[in-house]
Structures are given as structure tokens and as C-alpha cells.
Amino acid sequence: MDYVNGPGRNHLFVPGPVNIPDQVIRAMNRNNEDYRSPAIPAMTKTLLEDVKKIFKTTSGTPFLFPTTGTGAWESALTNTLSPGDRIVSFLIGQFSLLWIDQQQRLNFNVDVVESDWGQGANLEVLASKLAADTNHTIKAICIVHNETATGVTNNLATVRKILDHYNHPALFLVDGVSSICALDFRMDEWGVDVALTGSQKALSLPTGMGIVCASPKALEASKTAKSVRVFFDWKDYLKFYKLGTYWPYTPSIQLLYGLRAALDLIFEEGLENVIARHSRLAQATRLAVEAWGLKNCTQKEEWFSDTVTAVVVPPYIESSEIVRRAWKRYNLSLGLGLNKVAGKVFRIGHLGNLNEVTIFFSSLN
């Protein structure tokens, strides 16, 4: 009985899933439809064009998978790489750790570059590895743009500069699950070959849609990649794109309508304004944490995340107790510390459908 929801609405401040706008909920409140009718392909065509805008790409090809970010990870890897391929991947927190685990289980040769949790990716090590790789044995660089376990954001523009400096042809694969539509992300400008996100993060949708965007270079790589893939095979999607029906299997009709409404809201506010709003809310959250006399898990300002803040608690406090009390006493959902920072931090998500007043009242609690 301790865990019965209290009166009033639940105040959701985890770094995903996030609060869903009423307009999106209403858009999804509909019956099933025949996805082979003229209506769904027509809507899908506009969705694919508009999704490219949130990745800031004109040349990329998007894919909408009925899956989570984990499935989007697998799609990015298996469509571009072959078993045994050497990839460099950065371990900076729980979600980069999980992606590395997937890479290893898919039988890639993973060159792991590990940093202390609370630090960003060690790009000096990347530079040294690329400088030594004159035979171009490294086939891909895999990096999590925003690590939600520790509130760390990596500098993708610098990764591209390093690749260009050494004229290295490795593919550039980016997990943008908790960054795209909230943080500055420029697929074309930064030369990202595969980027991905999940519907339950800054898009403010329910969980269930993994969105992948592939550059022309990545599509070319997919023609010779030998990894086994079926459900996540880009080739199947491309075949149906050409046919004008778009779907190789049944999509979630309700999520498609939700995505339409979510994109409309983002474009109405303006993507740059959305990014600026996330920056304001993040700064306000960090100032509140400082006022509480607590510290940010992220060790340098250059790595501060604008979508999640991981708060370090004093050593005599178990952070999960703070999360439990917040839920029980205030109907307030905060994120637990994960893995190496379990019991040491709690996490405040400030992404998606939030504004200044919402953040203010969460800070008061």
C-alpha cells in the first residue's frame, strides 16, 4: 500500500519516458486503420521528410521502426558493419555500456575507450588510435551523444574534426536517443553517418518507435555489410519506399499520428527555440542543485547535459531513498542512479514537454 499513486497528477522528471502533450494524446486516440490504404502511405511520406529536419539533414534517409532505442542501435550496427569489424566505442556510463555490450554480442571487434563516469569521451585517445590506424582497420566510431546515466554530453563536432584531420574513412555512428530534438544536433554538418533516437525522449511520445537516419555513405556500406539482419533491414524499407507503400510490416498507426502531432508542435515552437528552452531549463535545474548544496555528477561544465542532471548525494545518504520518498510523498518521479553510480546519485530529467513553471514547482518539492 506504500506505492499507491497519491492525489493529483504524477510529476514525471525522469530522463525518459517524458510527459506527453495533450495534443499528442488526442492525436493518438483513434481506432486502427488499414495501413495499405492511401491515407497511411501519404502521411508516412510527409513524416519521413519532416523527420529529416530534426536531424538537420537533407541527404539522410530516415527509417521508422516499431522498437525502442535498443532496436535502433542494432539497426545502425547490423546494416553498416560485418562480424569481426573493428569499431571504437566510448564507455562513459550505463547506456554506452549497454550499447558496447550489444556490439560485442553482435561479434564486432570492439575497441573500448573508457572514462570515469561523470567524464565525457576521451577524444585524445581517439585521435591517437586514428593516427596509428594507417591501414584503416577501424570501420566505425560509435558514441553516445548524451549519456543519461551521468548527465554528460559529448562534443560531436570535435569527433568529426579528428576524423577529418586524419582523413579517416571510418563510419560515424551516434546514439542521439536523449539529445535529438533537445540538444544541438547537425547530422550533415558534423558528417554523422547514422544517427538514431527514440520516441519516448525529446519527441514526447510513448515508447515504441526507434528512428534511424542514414547518410548516403551508410547506405552504400549497407550494400556490402554481412551482419545478419531481418526485422531491422534497411533494404526491406527501401524496397517499399520505391513502391510508395513505405511499410514492409505493420506499423503502429497510433504512434504515426502521434509523431505527426509531435513534429507539428516542434515546428510551431521552432526547433531552435526548443533547443534554447532545454538550455534554459537545464541551467535553472543546475542552479537549484547548487542552491541545495549538492554537486553535479558531470565533472566539467563543457560536458553538462541540457536534458538530464545527475545529482551526487552526500555519502551518508542512499540516493534511492530520495527517489522513493519523492514518489511516495510528492507523487514525483525522479531517476535512480545506475550501475557504478547506483545509490550515489539521483537524476532529474528536464527534456520534452516541460516549461519554466513545471521546473520551478519540481524544484520546490
Automatic annotation (TrEMBL):
<feature type="domain" description="Aminotransferase class V">
    <location>
        <begin position="21"/>
        <end position="297"/>
    </location>
</feature>
<comment type="similarity">
    <text>Belongs to the class-V pyridoxal-phosphate-dependent aminotransferase family.</text>
</comment>
<keyword id="KW-0663">Pyridoxal phosphate</keyword>
<dbReference type="InterPro" id="IPR015424">
    <property type="entry name" value="PyrdxlP-dep_Trfase"/>
</dbReference>
<dbReference type="InterPro" id="IPR015421">
    <property type="entry name" value="PyrdxlP-dep_Trfase_major"/>
</dbReference>
<dbReference type="InterPro" id="IPR024169">
    <property type="entry name" value="SP_NH2Trfase/AEP_transaminase"/>
</dbReference>
<keyword id="KW-0808">Transferase</keyword>
<dbReference type="GO" id="GO:0019265">
    <property type="term" value="P:glycine biosynthetic process, by transamination of glyoxylate"/>
</dbReference>
<dbReference type="GO" id="GO:0004760">
    <property type="term" value="F:L-serine-pyruvate transaminase activity"/>
</dbReference>
<feature type="binding site">
    <location>
        <position position="347"/>
    </location>
    <ligand>
        <name>substrate</name>
    </ligand>
</feature>
<dbReference type="InterPro" id="IPR015422">
    <property type="entry name" value="PyrdxlP-dep_Trfase_small"/>
</dbReference>
<dbReference type="GO" id="GO:0008453">
    <property type="term" value="F:alanine-glyoxylate transaminase activity"/>
</dbReference>
<feature type="modified residue" description="N6-(pyridoxal phosphate)lysine">
    <location>
        <position position="201"/>
    </location>
</feature>
<keyword id="KW-0032">Aminotransferase</keyword>
<dbReference type="InterPro" id="IPR020578">
    <property type="entry name" value="Aminotrans_V_PyrdxlP_BS"/>
</dbReference>
<protein>
    <recommendedName>
        <fullName>alanine--glyoxylate transaminase</fullName>
        <ecNumber>2.6.1.44</ecNumber>
    </recommendedName>
</protein>
<dbReference type="InterPro" id="IPR000192">
    <property type="entry name" value="Aminotrans_V_dom"/>
</dbReference>
<dbReference type="GO" id="GO:0005777">
    <property type="term" value="C:peroxisome"/>
</dbReference>
<dbReference type="Pfam" id="PF00266">
    <property type="entry name" value="Aminotran_5"/>
</dbReference>
